[in-house]
Write a structure and sequence with these properties.
With 353 residues, this protein is of the alpha+beta class. The chain has three domains: 18-76, no CATH class; 120-195, Signal transduction histidine kinase, dimerisation/phosphotransfer (DHp) domain (Helix Hairpins, Orthogonal Bundle), CATH 1.10.287; 205-306 and 314-350, Histidine kinase-like ATPase, C-terminal domain (Heat Shock Protein 90, 2-Layer Sandwich), CATH 3.30.565. Helices cover 60% and strands 13% of the residues. The strands form two sheets. The chain has a five-stranded mixed beta sheet with strand order 2-4-5-7-6, covered by helices on one side. The chain has a two-stranded antiparallel sheet with strand order 1-3. Helix 3 packs antiparallel against helix 4, helix 4 runs parallel beside helix 9 and helix 5 crosses helix 7. The longest helix is centred in the middle third of the chain and has 48 residues, at 109-156. The two termini are 33 Å apart. This is histidine kinase.
Length: 353
């Protein structure tokens, strides 16, 4: 059971003063009621029995107390309303979608915590709104690029003077851009689905080394075409995880290593257990990633080098999907890279019994 925190001494003192004040006001109202009734009886010459006097005195006392309370409330209401009006206005602004709220007012006790809470909520909502707008802008940009190419080359095909070779090349570009558009759409759907996962993954125990070896073999046509030396060192390891999701992780990381490693380069994949942890290291001798870009490569739509040619350019969503899947497994992914020398991705899982 949660223990209630003791109230600060100054708050307790204020409460005691308030109670004493009410008692004093009630006593003064009683004296006033007694004076009024005494004057009334002396003036009229009417002298009822003690019971009637007590009832009249009590009723008049309560009426005076209520009246004094209403007068005090009337004069203090405007002051309190002026104090809390900024809170009301801030909540109305947030409800209308304006999250640029920052209350700079000082209130004591729980009211001060309420002000801090409103500021915190507004700040978080404002950050989410900025991310939403940036996301929409990035999606629009990524979709617009292939659509512009498809539209432009489709119009060019209407030219009857095009040679067969030119017509074929334009059709290949349209097909390539259509695939690129489809890949962006597929990646967005995957990322949206991953963001919506609230429950446990479909975990099972399986051989991680077997999975990695199978995926490396599946990529063999790509790394063989570039004459890349593939160094594989896989310890026999069982892991309790979502096999299908981790397959997306390894496919993406291997695909990036192959894509950005020059012909004749080298890629190594190492799997080992160290101090109860499962480590997967994928290292390449590719173009590398600068220090400033390493901090952002897991952001949606981020591309380390926007000037790369279209053949090597992705949607910028692959590593965001990788990071999300790794986070869902309560694992970590770390990148180490140097421009012109290569990149190493290290994924660490806590081994469970």
């Amino acid at each position: 059971m949660k223990k209630r925190r003791p109230e600060p001494s100054h708050i307790l003192l204020k409460k005691i003063v308030g109670v004493v004040g009410l008692c004093v006001v009630f006593a003064l109202c009683g004296l006033g009621a007694y004076g009024i009734t005494t004057l009334f009886y002396n003036h009229t010459g009417y002298h009822p029995n003690d019971l009637v006097k007590a009832l009249v005195h009590s009723v008049l006392n309560c009426m005076l107390f209520i009246g004094v309370g209403m007068i005090i409330s009337f004069f203090t209401m405007s002051r309190h309303r002026g104090r809390f009006q900024p809170l009301i206005d801030a909540l109305r602004r947030i409800a209308k979608g304006d999250f640029r709220v920052n209350l700079d007012i000082k209130l004591a006790n729980e009211w001060g915590e309420l002000v801090d809470g409103i500021n915190h909520v507004a700040e978080q909502l404002n950050e989410m709104e900025k991310l939403r707008q940036e996301f929409i802008s990035n999606v629009s940009h990524e979709i617009q690029s292939p659509l512009t190419s498809i539209s432009g080359f489709a119009r060019a095909l209407h030219n009857e003077r095009l040679s067969q070779e030119e017509r074929k090349r334009y059709l290949e570009i349209i097909e390539s851009e259509s695939k690129r558009l489809s890949k962006i759409s597929d990646s967005l759907l995957k990322l949206t689905a991953l963001e919506g996962i609230q429950h446990d993954l479909e975990r099972k125990r399986y051989r991680l080394d077997t999975q990695l070896r199978a995926l490396i073999l599946a990529c063999e046509p790509q790394w063989m075409a570039k004459e890349i030396d593939m160094d594989i060192d896989l310890e026999k390891v069982e892991i309790f995880a979502d096999e299908d999701m981790l397959s997306q992780v390894w496919t993406n990381l291997l695909g990036n290593s192959i894509k950005f490693t020059e012909a004749g380069g080298k890629i190594s994949v190492k799997l080992e257990t160290v101090n109860g942890e499962v480590l997967v290291k994928i290292t390449d001798t590719g173009i590398g990633i600068s220090k400033e870009n390493q901090e952002r490569i897991f952001e949606r739509f981020f591309k380390a080098d926007p000037s790369r040619n279209r053949a090597n350019s992705g949607s910028g969503l692959g590593l965001a999907i990788v990071k999300k899947i790794i986070d869902l497994h309560h694992a970590t992914i770390v990148v180490e890279s140097e421009v012109g020398k290569g990149t190493t991705f290290t994924i660490t899982f806590v081994q469970t019994a």
